[in-house]
Amino acid sequence: MENTMAINYVSSDGLNLYAREYTSNKTANNPNKKVLLCIPGLTRNSLDYQSFSEPFRDEYRVIAVDLRGRGNSEYDSNKVNYQPVIYARDIVELIDHLNLSDVTLVGTSLGGIVSILVSNIIPDLIESIVLNDVGPEINPVGLERIRNYVGKSTIVDSWEEAVRQNKLINELELPDLSEQEWLTFTRGLYRVSTNGKIELAYDPEISESIKVKDENTPLIHLWPQFDVINDKPILVIRGEFSDILDVECVERMKSVNAQLTYCEITNRGHAPLLNEPQCVTALQSFFSSHQKINAIKSAN
């Protein structure tokens, strides 16, 4: 049986927000454990981190959020609020609500962008960062691909149909999933509606944040914010054929942050699921290494 604990809180603008903590017998009653705070991608939610949590929940508090407009979090009537600065504010408020410190942010895609912003707002509370297939700038090719599907999938009658719909969008990015893995992945993206139909578990209006506003201005340009956190341990994970995170961007990130660790996941596009053996090994090594560094600093 999956061990989870619901976390409910209210944002400063009155929205009911949700996160789930993946627990174990070792961490369920130990609020002093270090925290892995997981922020999903644009269309995903806290269920995206279920398998990720398994190797880590004995040692860490693994908390995964539903950004506003996703999963069990309330939809925002003001679609302009579906943007990274507001999401970052929500995460800061969750950290304050739970009185967290020594936080490692684990951000996939949009979640990585939010992680950079959060680390700028409360740097003293953020110990390290994992950026899953995202950096301070986004390849416009991948962004256009995402624009073409967000909020456009239809409601279906069965999980089989939902899996087929999901494959049309993601099969090239995740080419080697088994049928059971596809079903698990799909059940994290979709839900059963009140009329028994299967629908995506997000507000279609979240696409507002990725609409073209100015052809000559990049949607994301976070190099100044990335430079601010150049003293933090950062692990960058990239899918081998990602169309969101360019290798050139990764090289520039390395030049900015001497502590940056990089892992490229074979046979993956955007974005790795973080349960791949390569990912798990890289994550375990990263968490272990920066914990040792921090222990040495504390001893001195």
UniProtKB/TrEMBL annotation:
Q: Does the keyword Transferase apply?
A: no
Q: Where is the AB hydrolase-1 domain?
A: 35-275
Q: Name one GO molecular function term.
A: hydrolase activity
Keyword annotations of the record: Hydrolase
Highest taxon of the lineage: Bacteria
What's this protein's name?
Alpha/beta hydrolase
